[in-house]
Specification:
mainly alpha, 11 helices, 71% helix, globular, binds fe (ii) ion
């Protein structure tokens, strides 16, 4: 069992498929994660389940891996002060979570927009241009830049969690390149495909950040590191002063337009 804890979760699930369902039951959704570099022991410590639930879950997993055997279940190390399921963020992490709220508003609009998207009309093309501008300037230029250039710098670049986050950002950028190509060629199918894929990816990504990664990272940082991160975020916000208001307005405008059309 000890050896399994040091294997990547994707490999464990591949060899023992029922493990995915067990993790799911404890709110640990590793199956849909595209990268899956985390080790089984990381998954357990990151989610920081209450001790009794951790033992119960690990007992069930060990029965899948070693059926019928009595296995000594190793305890996964955890920070004693960490509390399960309480999502309290430090002020800089809260800023990232708040920015996710605006990004999620855009993600929620995508399924409403796509069925009636008409790239033959100027209005349809402008809508996609606006969406791409939001993604590139706000979601990527403003928000992901804070994560990549500031937050991640407090951690080892080789940490699986950081690699997974960067990989998601990269995949998202590739979807946007494809969306722009589709837009230029008035290729509706390509735009629909890549915008839907972008939405699925970012929805999962934000959920993982909000519920797992940001709280875990918060737990690792000292008070002075949190303060340093906060002031670096403020510098970015001053430099990109107009961004928050400009893109809140853009998303509200798209919401109003599409709501009106539904009435
Ligand atoms: Fe991110
Ligand atoms: Fe984020």
């Amino acid at each position: 069992m000890e050896a399994q804890l040091n294997r990547s979760i994707k490999e464990v699930i591949k060899d023992f498929p029922p493990v995915e369902k067990i993790l799911d039951e404890y709110g640990i959704g590793c199956g849909p994660c595209a990268v899956g570099l985390c080790l089984l022991k990381d998954i357990v410590s990151i989610h920081n389940l209450p001790a009794d639930q951790e033992q119960e879950m690990m007992g069930r997993i060990s029965q899948v891996i070693h059926p019928g055997q009595k296995v000594q279940i190793p305890r996964v190390e955890r920070k004693p002060e960490a509390r399960p399921k309480e999502l309290r963020y430090s002020p800089p992490m809260k800023k990232l979570v708040d920015e996710h709220v605006l990004i999620k508003k855009w993600l929620a609009l995508i399924p409403e927009i796509l069925p009636r998207l008409d790239l033959e009309s100027e209005e349809g093309r402008q809508l996609i241009r606006d969406g791409v501008d939001f993604i590139r300037s706000y979601a990527d230029g403003f928000h992901h830049a804070k994560e990549e250039d500031i937050l991640f710098k407090f951690f080892d670049e080789n940490l699986d969690m950081v690699k997974v986050m960067r990989e998601d950002h990269k995949t998202a950028r590739n979807h946007v390149i494809a969306i722009v190509e589709g837009l230029e060629g008035k290729d509706r199918q390509t735009v629909v495909h890549h915008l839907s894929a972008y939405r699925d990816l970012l929805s999962q990504h934000i959920k993982r950040e909000d519920e797992i990664m940001l709280p875990w990272m918060d737990n690792q940082l000292s008070v002075s590191q949190v303060g340093e991160m906060f002031s670096k975020f403020l510098e970015v916000e001053e430099r990109m002063d107009s961004y928050q208001k400009k893109y809140e307005d853009l998303i509200s405008r798209i919401e109003r337009k599409y709501r009106k059309k539904e009435e």
